[in-house]
């Protein structure tokens, strides 16, 4: 395959290959095409599948065994992300659960908090979400209006969140709120809300999106929701912005990784299609225009993959910085959009038909330039480092 590059050294481990094979077989068996279609029609993945995934060892893969996890590392997380994407298991937000939300508890929770929440996040008893964005505050986290004010031996949360992935099924939500509104960013804290154990929590609409139909992106409302002081992540007020900034580089790299996978899949799909589809008596692939376009796309996809692999190496070494992760997200998502659009074009009219995989990729990929920090925000972050 022309898109293949040498296996990076950090993935050249027989145990990693065995784990990838195990994850792939689980997805083939438990997430067949018909079941995934049912999720698309329902607008969300059924809760039972999360339990199945937890029991099979797909959740909490980099959580230490002492806290109920699988004892792996970031490479194991990448295997799950890669297999879910390549198998087309739409809506199953294992990347959000494993790579984005669970690390907040693992990296910033107290020993007691880790023992309380990590086992359930690892076995599928709890599905995670993080509530950052608000109707009036997307990428500007300092502008959030949700408050968590002291009330007895706890905090009372008031506010509204939107664009929350896993919003309809999540039963452990990390909420970004201001414990001291007068302090701006220094007054932001993270609190854990378990919806089935509180009053005043309400799930709003499951938002009707352009793509990612099986992902239950939702509104959430907190009306005088009281949580005990023990639910303050890290047990220290005002640490929320620091905690967010510590984890965002990995989240942005994750999006870049997913973009790399999508553009590779799009090119592979398009090569197969153009070899089979005929126009003017010959395969579409044989036209020089097609070959030149695919050549450009293959070169760009490989360039992105090499950069992304270097960033992964930095994560494993503990040296990935915010600027580099912003560069990875910016370039990977922008090139993803360009490549998927060109691949659709090479499909002709069939590219516009939802029965064809490229149409779904086109719809689903558009949001990658928005969530996790928009391309404009990434450019601002990069510019500050110049």
Overview of the structural elements:
The strands form 3 sheets. The protein has a 4-stranded antiparallel sheet with strand order 2-3-7-6, with no helix packed on it. The chain has helices spanning 14-30, 33-42, 47-55, 74-86, 94-108, 111-123, 240-276, 288-317, 322-346, 357-365, 375-384; strands at 128-131, 147-150, 154-164, 172-178, 188-193, 201-206, 218-228, 278-279, 282-283. A hairpin with a 3-residue loop joins β2 and β3. It is globular and about 80 Å long. The protein has 3 domains: 9-126, Butyryl-Coa Dehydrogenase, subunit A, domain 1; 130-237, Butyryl-CoA Dehydrogenase, subunit A, domain 2; 242-384, Up-down Bundle (Butyryl-CoA Dehydrogenase, subunit A, domain 3), CATH 1.20.140. It is α+β, with helices and mostly antiparallel strands. α4 runs antiparallel to α5 and α4 packs parallel to α7 (240-276). The model has no long low-confidence stretch (mean pLDDT 94). The protein contains 11 helices and 9 strands.
In brief, what are we looking at here?
Helix content is 49%, strand content 14%. With 386 residues, the protein is of the alpha+beta class.
Number-wise, the strands total 9
CATH class of the largest domain: Mainly Alpha
Percent strand equals 5-15%
Largest sheet: 4 strands, antiparallel
What's the CATH H-level homologous superfamily of the largest domain? Answer: Butyryl-CoA Dehydrogenase, subunit A, domain 3
Average of the residue pLDDT scores: 94
Order of helices and strands: HHHHHHEEEEEEEHEEHHHH
**CATH second-level architecture of the largest domain:** Up-down Bundle
CATH-assigned fold name of the largest domain:
Butyryl-CoA Dehydrogenase, subunit A, domain 3
């Amino acid at each position: 395959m022309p898109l293949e590059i040498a296996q990076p050294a950090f993935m050249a481990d027989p145990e990693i290959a065995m784990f990838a094979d195990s994850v792939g077989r689980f997805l083939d068996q438990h997430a067949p095409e018909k079941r995934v279609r049912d999720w698309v029609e329902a607008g969300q993945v059924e809760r039972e599948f999360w339990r199945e995934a937890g029991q099979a060892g797909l959740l909490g893969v980099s959580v230490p065994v002492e806290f109920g996890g699988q004892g792996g590392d970031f490479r194991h997380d990448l295997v799950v992300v890669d297999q879910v994407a390549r198998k087309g298991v739409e809506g199953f937000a294992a990347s959000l659960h494993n790579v984005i939300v669970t690390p907040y508890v693992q990296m910033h929770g107290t020993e007691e908090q880790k023992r309380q929440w990590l086992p359930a996040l690892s076995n599928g008893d709890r599905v995670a979400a993080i509530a950052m964005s608000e109707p009036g505050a997307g990428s500007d986290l300092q502008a959030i209006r949700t408050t968590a004010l002291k009330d007895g031996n706890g905090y009372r949360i008031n506010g509204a969140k939107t664009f929350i992935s896993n919003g309809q099924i999540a039963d452990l939500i990390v909420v970004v709120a201001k414990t001291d509104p007068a302090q701006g960013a220094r007054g932001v804290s993270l609190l854990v809300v378990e919806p089935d154990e509180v009053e005043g929590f309400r799930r709003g609409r499951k938002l009707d999106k352009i793509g990612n139909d099986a992902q239950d992106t939702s509104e959430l409302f907190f009306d005088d929701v009281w949580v005990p002081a023990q639910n303050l992540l890290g047990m220290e007020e005002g640490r929320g912005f620091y905690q967010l900034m510590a984890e965002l580089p990995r989240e942005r790299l994750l999006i870049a990784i997913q973009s790399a996978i999508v553009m590779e899949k799009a090119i592979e799909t398009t090569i197969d299609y153009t070899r089979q589809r005929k126009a003017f008596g010959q395969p579409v692939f044989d036209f020089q225009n097609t070959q030149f376009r695919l050549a450009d796309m293959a070169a760009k996809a490989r360039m992105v993959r090499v950069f992304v692999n270097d960033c992964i190496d930095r994560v494993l070494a503990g040296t990935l910085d915010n600027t580099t992760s912003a560069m990875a997200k910016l370039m990977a998502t922008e090139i993803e959009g360009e490549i998927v659009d060109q691949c659709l074009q090479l499909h002709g009219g069939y590219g516009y038909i939802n029965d064809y995989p490229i149409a779904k990729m086109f719809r689903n990929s558009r949001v990658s330039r928005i969530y996790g920090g928009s391309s404009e925000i990434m450019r601002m972050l990069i510019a500050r480092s110049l």
